[in-house]
Every structure is written in structure tokens, then in C-alpha cells.
Amino acid sequence: MSKYKLDSFLPALSAAGIIGAWYLVRVIMPVEQHFLLPAPHQVLQAFADKGPALWSAVLNTGKGAVIGFASAVALSFVIALFLSLSARIRASFYPMLMVLQMTPIIVLAPILILWVGPGLKCVAIITFLICFFPMVVNTTQGLVSTDRNLVDFFTMCSASRRQEIFWLRVPSALPYFFTGLRIAATLAPIGAIVGDLYAGNAAGGQGGLGFLTIVYSSQFQMGALFATAIVSCLLGFVFVSIVLSLSWLTLHKWHDSYRKES
Fold it and tell me: Domain check: are 119 and 14 in the same one?
């Protein structure tokens, strides 16, 4: 069996090992504590029983995550361009970004609820706040880390400031940009679920995965809770997979990180 075929089986083998260990822990646990850890087949049954509710919640949470994530990407790129213009601009405004990042969401959520009301808009804003900082920091770092020799070459060629930024600095910053994008893609579903917990609105079927978490935990439906956790994880995988695909399409032909090992 070739090394490539063997590697392709490793995730499946790991998953099988985890499921086996899961059942083993259930066997070792006292019977009276089995309700704390549902068996994998019980989680699958919860998927079947709660499927419509889970699907609706995924769509609602995904909507908030997409809106917040996309807004964070767009605004962070514009602000990163502004911050990259000079060290004085960065020294003036970077502390403000740090203040925003260091303010706990649990404190901001009640303020946002009073400002915009509970629901999708508030969830999207919370997701935006969680995703924004890693995007703007990584993109700014990429824009100011352009090879100095190339910058001097553009200067020798009498390139304008706009040409230097969009023809040299932005392409050079793409690896940094996609690094921030991967971090933000991981945080986006988490931000949306946190937003559901603190600022979601279940009226009219708008409840997301965070709302289901509250419902199932209050009813002590452990199988449904595990199913909700797995669905939340899968939503994160979808976000990260899309970003990794975009990164590969953009960088694989020229960036060192995608060169095959000899």
C-alpha cells in the first residue's frame, strides 16, 4: 500500500479509535452515571430525532456567522490598508483596536442588545467583533512586511503610492491575510453561537445552535447536546474548508508554503 493511500485512511482509523474509546469509557463508568455520557449510537438517534431543529438552528447560526465574518473581512482589509500607510498611524490607532479586543463579549452583549435588539443583527455584530481583530492584525503585518528590495525597486521605477500598495504590498500580504482568514473562520461559528447564547432571538424559528444548547441543557437531553456540539464543530469545518480552498487556489502556484517537498 502506498504512503498516500495509507495517509488517506489515518483520519478514519483515528475516528474509529475515538469511538471505540468512547464505548470503553461507557463500560467502565458506573451504570448510574451513563446518562452523563450518551453512547455514539444514542447521539446518532438524537440526530435523527432532532434533525429538523438542528438543521434550522445551523442555518440561523450560519447566517449570523457569514454576515459577521464577511463584514469583518471587508472592514479589516480597509483598515489594514489605512494602518499600513505609516508607523504614526499605527501608533495612533492600534491601541484603540486593542481596547476593542480586550473588552469581553459578555460585557458588550447587553450593550448591543439595548442598541440594536436581540436577534440576527446582534449575533452578526458579536461575530464581527470576535473575527475582526485577527484579520486586521495579520493583514496589517503582511502589508508592512513587504520585501524591502522590492519596495526599493518600485521606487526606482517611479511607481506611484497606489501602484506600490496594490501591485506589490497587497499580493505580498496575501499569505498573512489568509492566515488571519483561517483564524477568523475558526472563530466565526464560535462567535455566532456565543451571540445566540447572549443575544439570540428564538421567536419565529430564529433560534440558533446557542439557543438549542440552552434548551437541551435545561431539559438534560445529553444525546441532543452532544449532537448539537458535533453539528457546531461541522459548521466550523465548513468555514475553515472554504478558506483553505480559497487559500490554495490563490497561493499554490507561487507561494513557498504550497511547494511539494522533494
Answer: no
- Give the DSSP per-residue string, 121-180: HHHHHHHHHHHHHHHHHHHHHHHHT--HHHHHHHHHTT--HHHIIIIIIHHHHHHHHHHH
43: nearest Cα among 239, 241, 216: 216
Top mean pLDDT of 35-39, 55-59, 116-120 is at: 55-59
Let me know whether 83 and 15 are in one domain. no
> What is the C-alpha R_g of the chain?
23
For residue 73, the SS3 value is: helix
Residue 104: give its domain's CATH number: 1.10.3720.10
Mean of pLDDT over the chain = 89
pLDDT at residue 56 tops 80: yes
Q: Which of 108, 95, 114, 170 is nearest to 139 (CA)?
A: 170
3: domain range?
Answer: 1-37
